[in-house]
Amino acid sequence: MTHPFSDVAFGGVLVAPFAAYAAMALIIFLLLRPILHRLRLADMFSHPSIAGLSLYVTILGLVTFLI
User: Fold this and answer.
1) Cα separation of 1 and 14, whole Å?
2) Are 12 and 42 in contact (CB under 8 A)?
3) CA nearest to 55, candidates 38, 18, 30
4) Which pLDDT value is given to residue 1?
5) In this structure, is the dihedral angle defined by the CA atoms of residues 31, 37, 41 and 45, taken in order, positive or negative?
6) Most confidently modeled of 14-28, 33-47, 48-62?
7) Which of 6, 7, 25, 66 could form a Cys-Cys staple with 60, CB 3.0–4.6 A?
């Protein structure tokens, strides 16, 4: 079974589907950040920036897998 990848066109420039997935994951991550800050989850980690990167990579993997 093959997945037909369709390119996304922005202003006549073709962009790979992965770039669209990365943008979607970034939007989801940016929407989640204020919620996570209110829950004070950053205090649970010694390096909150690495935890944020890990969350973004997880969201990117889920977006790539589900679409």
Assistant:
1) 25
2) no
3) 30
4) 52
5) positive
6) 48-62
7) 25
Average confidence score pLDDT of the chain: 88
Angle at 64 between CA 58 and CA 57, to 5 degrees: 20
- Amino acid letter at 47? H
Cα-Cα-Cα-Cα dihedral sign, residues 41, 44, 47, 53: negative
pTM of the predicted protein model = 0.80
Q: Which residue has the tokens 């989850």?
A: 41
Is residue 44 packed enough to be buried (19+ CB in 10 Å), middle (13-18) or exposed (0-12)?
exposed
Percent of the chain residues topping a pLDDT of 90: 58
Is residue 28 predicted with pLDDT exceeding 90?
A: yes
